[in-house]
Amino acid sequence: MQPTAGTPVPSGKDVFRFVLVRSDGELSTAFEPSTDDKAEPVPTVSVWVFGIALPAPTANLLQKPYDGYLLLAVDFIRLLVPTIKLDVPPLDVVQRPLSSESPGSEHAGITGLVRPNDIPRSTYKTIRSHLAVEGRKRYTSLR
Amino acid sequence: MLTTFNPQKPINSTYHVTQSFEGFEREIRLPLQLYRPSAYTERLEQISAYLHRRLEEGYITSEVISRAWKALLMLLAFNKRLSVPVAGVGGDQQILFEWDRREHHLELEVFASGDAQLFYLNRSTNRTQERDYPIDGSAMVCLNVEMADALGYFIIGNER
């Protein structure tokens, strides 16, 4: 039985992602999947649903020195791949409870960002680059 | 093959990268500053400081810093008019050096595994180029014509 991606985050919502800035203070590699992301049954890139979770308290809970967070509209994420006309499945944003003991809807994941082996890296670098450009428009520092 | 590089070493007119292999050792001299204004050196120092801050925060390892520095210095020596990039770190302990000029974007990405890759993107047309970038062995950089041409978008003084 194939694992399911999860319940879609409703249209109209924003999600935030914690990020590190580059040496010039700008954002760059905000949407690279980590090793942990890739190890999930359905790989996703971790985001949080804005409003259900709030950035500053969430960052404190995670206990990592993030520089800030960026906000992206769920609808933008879903429309990105068709908009830039790449021949890969569109991205989605789904709820990703952190554990069975913490089944809240505050944590989510972007699906479709982990590159299948038969697709060039450049395709997924292009998608991540467009996400980063959009995310820079609504970046908030936590420092 | 062991390659060592000390990114805390003051940036002088020549960078030294030492390689040792089966008891033999050689030093590669990379004459970076011969054609550069002082701002060039300051930007290299900025990204060195940035990477060490990320090291202290636990996002990257000293090993990947060492390899990334060597990769960057090789590229700057390959094209002596190439501007200094900005540095970033990814979620998987990789280091990225990035150049941006208008619609042109170039990345030199050094992964925690030690592999590296060059990637060019034209954000207007979505045209891309990518090439694996060997760090071990020869200090020579071997690029195809298209990637070497893409570097031209990011050289000092070229606003084409």
Entry summary:
The complex is a heterodimer of chains A (143) and B (160). Chain A is an alpha+beta fold.
What does this structure look like?
The complex is a heterodimer of chains A (143) and B (160). By secondary structure, chain A is an alpha+beta fold. Chain A has one domain (14-141). Helices cover 27% and strands 21% of the residues of chain A. Chain A has four helices and six strands; from the N terminus they run βαβαβαββαβ. Chain A has helices at 35-39, 55-62, 74-83, 121-136, and strands spanning 14-19, 44-49, 68-73, 92-95, 107-111, 139-141. Chain A has a six-stranded antiparallel β-sheet. The relative contact order of chain A is 0.26. Chain B has one domain. A five-stranded antiparallel β-sheet of chain B has the order 4-5-6-7-8. A three-stranded antiparallel β-sheet of chain B has the order 1-2-3, covered by helices on one side. In chain B, strand 7 (116-122) and strand 8 form a beta hairpin. Chain B is globular and about 35 Å long. The A-B interface holds A 20-24, 26, 28-29, 32-35, 37, 65, 84-86, 120-123, 125-126, 129-130, 133 and B 46-47, 50-51, 54, 57, 59, 86-92, 94, 96, 98, 105, 107, 117, 119, 121, 123, 126, 128-130.
Secondary structure blueprint with pairings:
The complex is a heterodimer of chains A (143) and B (160).
Chain A: E1 14-19, H1 35-39, E2 44-49, H2 55-62, E3 68-73, H3 74-83, E4 92-95, E5 107-111, H4 121-136, E6 139-141
Antiparallel strand pairs in A: 1-2, 1-3, 2-5, 3-6, 4-5
Chain B: E1 2-4, E2 15-21, E3 24-30, H1 38-57, H2 62-78, E4 86-89, E5 95-101, E6 104-110, E7 116-122, E8 128-132, H3 145-151
Antiparallel strand pairs in B: 1-2, 2-3, 4-5, 5-6, 6-7, 7-8
Mean pLDDT of chain A: 86
Shape of chain B: globular
How much strand of chain B? 25-35%
Query: Strand share of the residues of chain A?
Result: 15-25%
Number of helices of chain A: 4
The biggest beta sheet of chain B reads: 5 strands, antiparallel
Distance between the termini of chain A: 45 Å
Low-pLDDT runs of chain A: none
Helical content band of chain B: 25-40%
What is the count of β-strands of chain B? 8
Largest sheet properties of chain A = 6 strands, antiparallel
Quote the average pLDDT of chain B: 77
How many distinct domains of chain A? 1
Compressed to H and E, one letter per element, the order of chain B equals: EEEHHEEEEEH
Q: Number of helix segments of chain B?
A: 3
Shape of chain A: globular
Instruction: Give the class of chain A from helix and strand content and strand pairing.
Output: alpha+beta
With strands numbered from the N-terminus, the spatial order across the biggest sheet of chain A is 4-5-2-1-3-6
Q: Helical percent range of chain A?
A: 25-40%
Q: Uncertain spans of chain B, ≥5 residues at pLDDT below 50?
A: 1-13, 19-26
Number of strands of chain A: 6
